[in-house]
Amino acid sequence: MAGPTGRGSSLGAALNDLLREQVSPRHRLSTYSAKQWHAQLSQLTGTRRGCEALDSAGLDVRPDTLFKWLSDPEYNVRRSYRDVIHTAYENVAIVPAEPLPDTVKRGQFEISGLVKTGDDERERGTRRAAPLRIDASRGDWTEIEALWLAGDLRDNDFEDLFVDEIIVADIGEGTDGWEFGGDSYAVELR
User: Fold this and answer.
1) Nearest to 162 by CA among 19, 9, 22
2) Counting beta carbons within 10 angstroms of the beta carbon of residue 39, is it exposed (0 to 12), middle (13 to 18) or buried (19 or more)?
3) 11 closest CA partner among 164, 186, 152, 165
């Protein structure tokens, strides 16, 4: 049974594409674009989630003070309060990434594209050469998942870590390491 497929110009791009099919990455909600403290506070106080974020960030003012702030955008609010409002706003605006599911961390990956190890360089996933098959359950996903959750998993980093932590853990170093210098890759998860 075929599973999700990621496609990209590099192996890392194809892997990132595949992850985005499976789980939501860290992202910013498009409705949270206010720059000034007053606009941020107005938006936050308009939702229960926003009010909870203000409480969590440590905004501790009386209701009449909050009312004065909301009714006058020119009100002189202390810098420390503006910082708390901004922190709460960012906490609501940024949606954390979903953790990588076991189906990814324990899956079977099939990589199609140009693969080189030592003198062996061939286009995998064709009639002449099967895809490169990797058992991801043997690898260590710790660093990949940490970067994913932080929203910092770049294509090049993903490719390097996938080779070092997943491919090498499953099938070894290869003849002289693994290289993925092709122009297009497909990664299927089974």
Assistant:
1) 19
2) middle
3) 186
Who's near 54: CB < 8 A, 6+ residues apart? 41, 44, 45, 84, 85, 88
pLDDT band at 1 (very low <50, low <70, confident <90, very high): very low
Do 107 and 18 meet the contact criterion of CB atoms below 8 Å apart? Answer: no
Q: What is the mean pLDDT of the chain?
A: 95
Q: Mind listing the pLDDT tens digit for each residue in 142-152?
A: 999 999 999 99
Please report, rounded to a whole number, the percentage of residues in the chain having pLDDT higher than 70.
Answer: 99
Dihedral angle of Cα 158, 111, 18, 15, to the nearest 10 degrees: 10
Task: List the structure tokens of 80.
Answer: 């420390």
**H helix or E strand, kind and range, residue 15:** helix 11-22
Check residue 132 and give its pLDDT.
Answer: 97
Distance CA 80, CA 87 (A): 11
